[in-house]
Amino acid sequence: MNNDWKSEGTNGKGNAEETSYLKRREEDRLSRKKKGAGQTVLTTLVCSVVLVLVTTLGIALYAWIDEAINKSTAEMAVNQNVETQVGDLQAGDIQTDGTYRYTQEELDAQLQAASLKAEEAQALAVQAKEDEILGGIRTRLEEGGTMVETLRPYYPNELVLVSNGTFHFVPIREDLEHNNYVQENLQILESGEYQYLENEQVISHKGIDVSHHQGAINWQKVAEDGVEFALIRTVYRGYKSGALAEDSYYKQNIEGASAAGIHVGVYVFTQAITLEEIEEEAALVLEQLAPYQIDGPIVIDVEKTAEATGRMNQISVEERTNLVLQFCRIIENAGYKPMIYHNMEMGALLIDIETFEGYGKWFASYSDQMYYPYAYDIWQYSSTGRVNGIKGDVDLNISFTEFWNE
Questions:
Q1: Which 8-state DSSP code applies to residue 214?
Q2: Cβ–Cβ contacts within 10 Å for residue 402, how many?
Q3: CB neighbours of 313 closer than 8 A, spacing ≥ 6?
Q4: More confident residue, 229 or 123
Q5: Are 193 and 380 within 8 A, CB to CB?
Q6: pTM above threshold 0.85
């Protein structure tokens, strides 16, 4: 019975059916083969993609791990080791990157050695500076300089002076008015007279100050000797007795100087220790000047006397300052120009110079150095000058302005 379909397929109709059947079987086989091939390709693609993803992730993970390891290694090197270029170091373990790595003990030794070298260099520099300073001091002293003059260049921001046998170093105040005089502009003539130049032209004016100590003066000869102004003592107070007196030559000197065409100012030598005394001095000088026309200042000459027992030597800086200020106010209120005579000791130590900002200054310093920094109008530079018409020594001055025209 299983072969019945074969026997029946021998006729035409049977052959056609058999052919159709075989054809369908072949198509089914080819379809299954094609479907299997597609599944194989798909599987291969999926595996490839998975492989690529796994590889990429692996590379990224490796890079992250490598970076972390390097960072950790670098931090350990910073925290635990000191690396220095080969050739500069003498100890330690050499590394593959051409550096040395030190232990803490080796580092401490290197630092200690460097510190010792720095201390040695500093000591040598200090010694060299000391030798330079000492050499400069020795040279200046050998050239005849005084100790105070020798020290001054080494303290440019302080006034160096001696008072009562003690060296003083007084800070220079920048808030006070300074002069603008230049040392190189000072010209000293063969006669010993000083002149001050600007743009190679003499701008200073020759002057003297006198009292009864000069005796009778030929003022015409004084004028012919080039003297342009004179400061004449009118009043003085005894530094021991405190007695107030008129200078015995004040009238003769004012009248003689004025007649010779010399500009006249006057000064009062004070030893007042109370307001009553200073007012008495101011009142007397104003009374003396009433008959005259002067075009110069009225100066208060405030000095520490050489005698330790001098009256004004005994008062305080504040008291002295207040007395001088009271005199200036009285003179100014009377219509005259007040001025203060002082030296460096007085200006730096014995009065409050700030109080007199705006008042004229007559400064005394018997030196050829323009060392004093603060403003002044007249410079008394010698007590041993010589002028025609005067017998013996006389104080010499220069004025930096035409004060008679101010």
A1: G
A2: 13
A3: 304, 305, 307
A4: 229
A5: no
A6: no
